[in-house]
Amino acid sequence: MASTSMARNWAELPPELLQLCSQRLCPKNLSAFRAVCRSWQSAAVKEWSDVPWLMLTDENGMPQREFFCLSCQQVHKKLLPEVMANGYFSSRGWVLTTSRDGEFHMLKNPMSRYSHIIKLPNWNKFPNIEDLPFFDVDFIRKFVLSDSPTTSPEYKVMVIYDNGQLGLWKPGEEEWTAVNSPTDERIYDVIYYKGSFVAVDFENRILRCDVDGPTPFEAQVVFQVPRRLQEFEHEYPPGSLWYVNEVCLVQSTTGSLLFVSLEEHVASTITFQFLVLEIDLDTQMYTAVENLENTSLFLGHNSSFSLEVDEDHLIKPNCIYFTYVRLSSSQFFEDGGDTGMGIYHLKDGTVELHVEGKSSPLLWIEPCF
Fold it and tell me: What range does the record give for the signal peptide (predicted)?
C-alpha cells in the first residue's frame, strides 16, 4: 500500500520541477527519466541540457561516434548511420560532415532523437580551386551558421576553405560563393557577430564581410589587433619555446566581441596561457579581460562559443574550456601530437587537463533546443 502511494506521489510531482530536473540530465539519463511514467515523459525537455558536449575522435568513416558528457563525466556512443564522414565541424548545435568524396552534409544536434539532414554543394562547387587535383580531408577549416536552419529559413553558411579563403552558401544555391579579402593573408577564424560575418586573419586584422548585397562579396578591414602584443606577452625562461597555437573570435554572453589567443609553452613540461581581449569596433579600442565573471568560453579548432553560468551550474564560471592539439609535440617528440580538452581558470591561470589522446581535434557541440 505504501509503495503504491509513493509511486503515485512521484508521478504527481509538479511539471515545472520535473522539467528543471530533466534539463540537468545527459541524453542517456534523460531517456531513462522519460521512461518512468507519462507525466515525467510529458514534462521532460525534448532535447539535451544547456551543457555542451565534446565529440571525441574515432576511426575515420565509422558511423558510431563517441561523445563526452560534462554532466556525468562519461563517454556515450551514438550511431550516426545517416552520414559516413571523415571530417566534423559544429555551429549552433549543428554538425557539418565532410566525406572523402568531397560531399558535405549538415546534421542537426547528433545527440537528439530527431534527425534532420541538409545536403550542401560538393567541394568541386567552390570557386578558385582549379589547382586542386583532388579533394583533401582538410579542405574545410571552419564552419559557421548565421542562424539555426530550424528557426530561420534565411540562414547562411560560411566556411574557411582551402588555403584560408572564405566561402558562402545560401539555401537554394547550387554553388559556393567566394568572399574576397582585401589582404593576402589567410583567414584564421570567422564568427557571426551582430548580423555580420566577422573574421580574423593571420596578421590579427579583423574583417567584416558584406554578404547581403550583390556579388562579388567583399570583406573590409575594420580593426587591427597589434600583431605583437608586447604588453600582454608572458616572460619565459631563456631557451624555452612558445607558440601561438590558436586564435579565436567569440561573442560573449553580454554581446561583446572577444579576441582570444592560446599560447603553448614548451619546456620540460607543456603549459598553456590565454590572452583575452575585448574589442570595440565602434571606438576602435581593445582592453584586456581578466575576469569573465558569470561567463565561460568554449574554444576549439572547429567550434567556439560562450555560455552564461553561475556557481550552481555544472560548468565552472570564469573559465575557458578548450580543446587542443599540441603542435609542438608532433614536431619535437617522437610519439606524435597530443589532443585533449582542458579547463583554464582565468582567476589564477591554472589548467585542468582531461580526455587526452592522440588523434584529430576534438569538437565542441553547442547546446540547442
Answer: none
Residue type, position 52, single letter? P
Pair 144, 128: CB distance under 8 Å? no
Contact 48, 367 (CB under 8 A): yes
Calculate ∠ Cα 292-295-301, nearest 5°.
95
Which value, in Å, is the radius of gyration of the alpha carbons in the chain? 22
- pLDDT (mean) for 158-162: 94
Could you count the other beta carbons within 10 Å of the beta carbon of residue 342? 19
- How buried is residue 292: exposed, middle or buried, by Cβ count under 10 Å (0-12/13-18/19+)? buried
C-alpha cell, 273 = 596561457
Report CA-CA distances (Å) from 209 to 102, 181, 330.
26, 9, 35
Side chain identity at residue 290, one-letter code: E
Q: Is the pLDDT of residue 84 over 80?
A: no
